[in-house]
């Protein structure tokens, strides 16, 4: 069973106050870059792995998806998702993505936001995602950037010139990283960009985009504290397409 | 004109003592990973951009390439390359890759080792490389890894726990980086992985490999000082294939 911090009440209480939970997609600074990678959902069968409160599921429906399935490991998250006005075309399923089985040749679009870096069994999930796509279908994901997940101490520190630096180490040493993010002992799986890309290619997905997301000049003007994100990217966005 | 440190005598005197120059390909720790990406050269027309002493040009001929062209900006390098027993099937050309024109639809294999991170005009060169490939042809390159080129001070430093860290900053700020490597004021162009990959995709090359090279356990046993390379990868290896 995957670790499920989202159902720890102390974690969840803090987590739901994040801008991306309060404001929805507009509170997620990388959303517009990620949205630009998603094909037009109109008429599609859409799957969201790690759907949380269902923001993207509802967005897909508002943009014409025919059926939408959201999957999440957290009861807390899914209760909130189901609290929005019901829509018979959206199905929410509680499942552990470490073992979830996805039906083959079913979806036009598979999406996953900031979820895959929690999973140990990612190679098997990526293979399943590829099989679950119809020919020409697309898979988009965001993960915490490997530069972000790599360090023993993942915090900016001052250098000898008084500038902040990101203390990179262990980039090529893949495996678990334990951080204290709202709760103690949150475990993420650190993987290199090379591993993410190779998993897609081995699953016969053609890489069609790789974005190391950072804030735009406009976003930094609005939220000056984001300037440091340019020193090391917080998110990695990938898109793979299944051959026709 | 591109900077040409290889024709500065003080630089060159030090540079030719590097293991990869003294021992050839076996002195380049990433060569076996890079070689694994190169299609069988037998019968191919082979182009090496930034050929240096011609080690890879001669390797391609020894492995059956029909014609080999090596291009380099440095007289020092090419004199040395031409000093090896001559081979009518290998042509060496002195040219600045910032402005070099490559004939279209000519090569089966285009190769470039540790050269492209010196070039300002990379988008145009990648487009030309793609056009110069025959259908099904392949482009392989190694560059200094963006994590390696990014920092203001590109040297390991101790952290507060006495461990060495790589002081990452400015990863998303692309542009020139000046280092003192055998000579003062060597200028490299820092680009993100995202930019390298996007340039290949925009040139209609299908990404077929992305390797963030680090030493193997065997290599670290032989050269223990390489263990720190696992903290931040020194090289990025890419392969793109032109659609049939």
Automatic annotation (TrEMBL), chains A, B:
Gene Ontology biological process terms from the UniProt entry: methylation
Domain called Methyltransferase type: residue spans: 47-141
InterPro entries hit by this protein: Methyltransf_11, SAM-dependent_MTases_sf
GO MF term set: S-adenosylmethionine-dependent methyltransferase activity
Record key words, sorted: Methyltransferase, Transferase
Pfam families assigned: Methyltransf_11
Name this polypeptide is given: Related to SAM-dependent methyltransferases
Organism (species): Phialocephala subalpina
């Amino acid at each position: 069973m995957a670790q499920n911090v989202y159902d720890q009440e102390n974690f969840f209480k803090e987590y739901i106050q994040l801008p991306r939970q309060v404001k929805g997609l507009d509170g997620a600074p990388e959303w517009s870059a990620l949205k630009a990678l998603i094909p037009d959902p109109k008429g599609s069968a859409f799957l969201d792995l790690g759907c949380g409160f269902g923001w993207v599921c509802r967005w897909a429906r508002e943009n014409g998806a025919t059926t939408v399935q959201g999957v999440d490991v957290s009861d807390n998250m899914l209760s909130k998702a189901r609290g929005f006005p019901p829509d018979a075309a959206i199905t929410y399923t509680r499942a552990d993505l470490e073992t979830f089985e996805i039906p083959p040749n079913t979806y036009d679009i598979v999406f996953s936001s900031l979820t895959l870096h929690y999973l140990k069994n990612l190679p098997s999930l990526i293979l399943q995602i590829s099989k679950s796509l119809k020919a020409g279908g697309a898979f988009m994901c965001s993960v915490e950037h490997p530069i972000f997940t790599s360090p023993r101490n993942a915090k900016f520190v001052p250098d000898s010139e008084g500038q902040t630096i990101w203390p990179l180490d262990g980039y090529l040493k893949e495996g678990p990283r334990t951080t204290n993010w709202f709760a103690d002992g949150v475990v993420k799986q650190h993987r290199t960009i090379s591993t993410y890309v190779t998993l897609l290619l081995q699953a016969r997905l053609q890489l069609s985009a790789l974005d190391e997301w950072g804030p735009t000049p406009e976003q930094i003007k609005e939220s000056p504290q984001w300037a440091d994100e340019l020193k090391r990217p917080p998110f990695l966005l990938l898109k793979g397409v299944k051959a026709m």
